[in-house]
Write a structure and sequence with these properties.
homodimer, mainly alpha, three-stranded antiparallel sheet, disordered C terminus, DNA-binding
Chain lengths: 239, 239
DNA sequence: CTGACATATATTGTATACAGTGTGTCATTA
DNA sequence: TAATGACACACTGTATACAATATATGTCAG
């Protein structure tokens, strides 16, 4: 505690997001401030402030005198969220087509040419968000709100529910082709086309994903998105 | 302090939003926590939590050891924000066309038929947000995220910058007709058409507004959106 | 007079303590 | 077994203390 290295609140936010990603926090499960604070090794003050931020981003829900809980999305919630993603990314693709810099375009091309089969091709790479296809486009839009809404709020929310590019794995070839088409439209600075293609791409992924999800749920017994991937429950500390 | 009537943090958030609306807080002006706390008559703890929430909604900006400030948008920022609004409301119109209930449709029709020339026709009526045309459609979308992003985050942000339906006043007839067309499309459950019309409507308003704004700025001396309407600086208390 | 450096002050960041309040649980009782 | 009440627990609100930092101020050398 000698040198000041950024606001503790932000580190707590990061730690909580990491904990969500790693499955250390379970959706719907109540947790007390004090327990969480001692787990993270911080005091209540900064923790509460961090929770308020995440609450505003709809990652946590609070009920007074009761506790904090990670939001638990239904399939319908996720579907609606993906609809929002669809139009926002459509707008991002349009803006990118209009505003992308040569440097960003080069990176985008390189990425979509060769990078697509690497792990980083995942839409929401855990620690390298700047390399995802969709992140690149959001950034290239040069629209501050679009980028923040997508990269910070929306992707964070999706990540909280283990929504990764699971659809990508199941239709990798189509997705790759769609990515290519989108990049081409952006390179041609054709905003209309870029938006249409991006929306179609997202729509395909959404429909595919929801269908698979519903089938999974019907075949098993859970309604939550929780058990899609792995989970554990180790606590972690910041710094 | 005897009876518990809701979380203080939420009341502070409301109070701050009200202060923003009333021009009691000026964009860009730094203010200290302690001063704000004593003005509001609360302690630093809840105030900080409230600030964190508003920070997540991008209404406030903080710099460590320096202070809180209401964000100060440039014209470009506002233009980009209106682009986001455009696609989100387009999606809302589409969803509304697909999901609207008969009751909501009736209200929407009644509103667009007769209510449009009343004060409540303002897109962001200060105290009756549920009656605005765009609010009605956002609600009718039955999409939780869409409604919250629009009504809570985006409209709140626009309101902070005194962006009201100033464009509406300057093209009331066109806007009224556009509203009518949109309602008609929704009534016919034509999602495609509803989205196209809503986007066009917003686009018209945006272009008109930005043009006027730039002309205003060129003719005067301010770059901030602040002086568009009135302002004062009376402090206020919650409860 | 100007610039760099050191100190002072104000403000923020964090931790802890305590009183008040609501909720859920559990035992008691009809 | 179901309803009622008491209790424990968790959370809320607030205050205070101290540490860390940035800005402002002032001093001194050139």
């Amino acid at each position: 505690m000698s040198a000041y290295d950024g606001e503790l609140v932000d580190k707590i936010v990061d730690a909580l997001e990491g904990a969500i990603r790693n499955g250390e926090l379970l959706p719907g499960k109540r947790i007390s401030e004090l327990a969480l604070a001692s787990t993270l090794g911080v005091s209540r003050g900064p923790l509460r402030e961090a929770i308020r931020k995440l609450e505003a981003r709809r990652l946590f829900e609070r009920t007074a005198f009761h506790g904090i809980r990670l939001v638990d999305l239904s399939i319908e919630d996720l579907e609606q969220l993906l609809i929002v993603r669809e139009v926002l990314e459509g707008a991002a693709a349009r803006a990118a087509a209009e505003n992308i810099s040569d440097k960003d375009l080069k990176e985008l091309k390189r990425f979509s040419d060769e990078g697509v089969r690497r792990k980083q091709a995942l839409t929401f790479a855990p620690k390298t968000p700047q390399y995802g296809f969709h992140h690149l486009i959001a950034r290239a839009s040069k629209n501050r709100w679009l980028e923040e809404m997508l990269c910070k709020d929306l992707y964070g929310l999706l990540r909280a529910y283990r929504y990764s590019s699971i659809d990508f794995a199941h239709r990798a070839k189509e997705a790759r082709e769609e990515h290519h088409e989108i990049v081409k439209a952006i390179a041609q600075h054709d905003g209309d086309l870029a938006e249409v293609l991006m929306r179609k791409h997202n729509r395909n992924g959404r429909i595919n994903f929801i269908k698979r999800l519903k089938a999974d749920v019907a075949g098993e017994r859970e309604t939550s998105l929780r058990p899609i991937f792995r989970r554990n429950r180790v606590s972690r500390k910041p710094t």
